[in-house]
Specification:
This protein is mainly α and 196 residues long. It has two domains: 100 residues, Four Helix Bundle (Hemerythrin (Met), subunit A) (Up-down Bundle); 90 residues, Up-down Bundle (Four Helix Bundle (Hemerythrin (Met), subunit A)). The protein is built from eight helices and no strands. Helix 2 packs antiparallel against helix 3 and helix 4 runs antiparallel to helix 5. The longest helix has 23 residues. It is globular, with a radius of gyration of 17 Å.
Length: 196
């Protein structure tokens, strides 16, 4: 059976988003050499999917790549993580509406990573964390009714509430723990939507 072009493009976009996710996750802990290696992977991945993107998405992606280079050059780890996760957002947002896993799931991943990167900034960027939470709430509202696993649905609701509460209280340990729970639950959502 031939794979439809849309699903092939979607798979390529999601694969290209992975190095951006890796860079976001490792921006604060990787050595400079490791960062440069991952940035090389990011550039290669971005180049490979340019033809699958709209002109406006290509422009946005180029802006994110420039921001990654600038942040790396100035050794601004938080800005590097944010630029990388914004590149991730461009790519996952370009996935078609026909994809098995709704784009909102990947955007919940984006929101969790952005929240976590802002938490790790010195000082923490609490206002931006609250913006990430507002965005996460919008994404969750768009798909929550499709999640028939009531335990998973409840856990995600609780996780988002915990993230919001921790950011409002400026509670670093609680925010870090809540972000990790949310990112793990996004993995569970992916499995839920991928189930046969």
């Amino acid at each position: 059976m031939a794979v439809p072009a849309a699903s092939s493009a979607d798979a390529a976009l999601l694969a290209a988003a992975e190095p951006f996710e890796k860079l976001t996750e490792t921006a604060f802990s990787a050595t400079p050499a490791e960062l440069d290696l991952t940035i090389g992977e990011v550039r290669t991945a971005a180049a490979g999917v340019r033809s699958a993107l709209s002109a406006s998405a290509v422009g946005l992606l180029d802006e994110r790549l420039a921001a990654i280079a600038s942040a790396r050059g100035a050794d601004r780890r938080a800005d590097l993580a944010i630029a990388a996760v914004e590149g991730y957002r461009v790519l996952v947002s370009a996935v078609s509406a026909a994809a098995k896993v709704p784009t909102a799931v990947n955007l919940l991943d984006y929101a969790g990573f952005r929240y976590d990167a802002n938490l790790k900034a010195k000082p923490a960027r609490w206002a931006d964390m609250m913006q990430a939470m507002a965005f996460a709430r919008e994404q969750w509202a768009s798909i929550a009714s499709r999640v028939t696993d009531s335990a998973l649905r409840g856990q995600m609701d609780t996780s988002l509430t915990e993230m919001e509460g921790a950011a409002k209280r400026r509670d670093v340990p609680a925010a870090a723990a809540a972000a990790q729970r949310e990112l793990a639950l996004v993995d569970d959502l992916e499995k839920f939507f991928n189930a046969p």
